[in-house]
Amino acid sequence: MRRTFNLAGIAYLLAGAGAVFAQTAPQPWRPLAETAHFETGDSWLVENTRYRLYGVQACLRGTTFTNASGQKRDCGEAGLAMLVGLVRDLKPMCTPVLESAHAGPVLVTCLAFPKTGKAAGSRIDVGTALIASGFAFAALKPDGKPVHLPYFVAELDAKRAKSGLWAFPDLPEPNAIIFKAIRDQQARSGNSPVGVRP
């Protein structure tokens, strides 16, 4: 199986807070640009700026699951399709949460305020919607703790209910894959994997 992730990207995927990021000053909420090019189930590019949902971990592109028809499907593509659908339907407003000290993505949170339908008058957090529907996961810190605890709770509920991708027994959980890759890299380099757990 071909995997399209790399260890340099994995280091970022695990960083939700800490020395690499600083909290931003309050910023205005803005609609997601119509020119956004979605890259993964938790990130997109607008002009030369990459954005990523804070606390959300998408399925890794190039990893697969077996659907109900017995066909192998790309897990990252499934999460990407769900994110694009939510953005198209909900038209969320986003604001930066954390600013990278390096040239990394801008971490954002996105909220939608539907005016019609069953959810009219409510506030929908896009990260929660992705995770609760079973098409994304709670991002974890290097110590294995969730970046944002409410997202971890939503993930546990989705897993228990076998929502979305959780319905498939061979779901390639991205956090498990990321932590395994880090442990393998540390073993090859002779570094102790202290503080890293699946």
What can you tell me about this protein's structure?
- With 198 residues, this protein is an alpha+beta fold.
- It has a single domain (7-182), classed as OB fold (Dihydrolipoamide Acetyltransferase, E2P) (Beta Barrel), CATH 2.40.50.
- Helix content is 30%, strand content 23%.
- It contains 5 helices and 12 strands.
- It has helices at residues 7-14, 75-90, 126-132, 149-161, 174-189, and strands at 21-23, 30-31, 37-40, 43-46, 49-53, 56-57, 64-66, 72-74, 93-100, 106-112, 124-125, 137-138.
- The strands form 3 sheets. Strands 1, 2, 3, 4, 5, 9, 10 and 11 form an 8-stranded mixed beta sheet that branches. A two-stranded antiparallel ribbon has the order 6-12. Strands 7-8 form a two-stranded antiparallel ribbon.
- Helix 1 crosses helix 5 (174-189).
- The longest helix is centred in the middle third of the chain and has 16 residues, at 75-90.
- The two termini are 21 Å apart.
Question: Can you give keywords for this protein?
Answer:
12 strands; OB fold (Dihydrolipoamide Acetyltransferase, E2P); disordered N terminus; single chain; two-stranded antiparallel sheet
Summarize the structure.
The protein has 198 residues and is of the alpha+beta class.
Whole-number tally of structural domains: 1
Basic shape: globular
Helix segment count? 5
* Residues in helices, as a percent range: 25-40%
CATH architecture: Beta Barrel
- Return the string of H and E elements: HEEEEEEEEHEEEHEHH
Quantity of strands, as a count: 12
Q: Strand content of the residues, in percent?
A: 15-25%
In the CATH scheme, what's the topology name? OB fold (Dihydrolipoamide Acetyltransferase, E2P)
- Class derived from helix and strand content: alpha+beta
Just give the CATH class: Mainly Beta
Major sheet size, sense and barrel closure: 8 strands, mixed
Q: Average pLDDT across residues?
A: 84
End-to-end C-alpha gap: 21 Å
Q: Kindly provide the radius of gyration, computed on alpha-carbon positions and rounded to a whole number of angstroms.
A: 17 Å
Q: pLDDT under 50 segments (min length 5)?
A: 1-22, 194-198
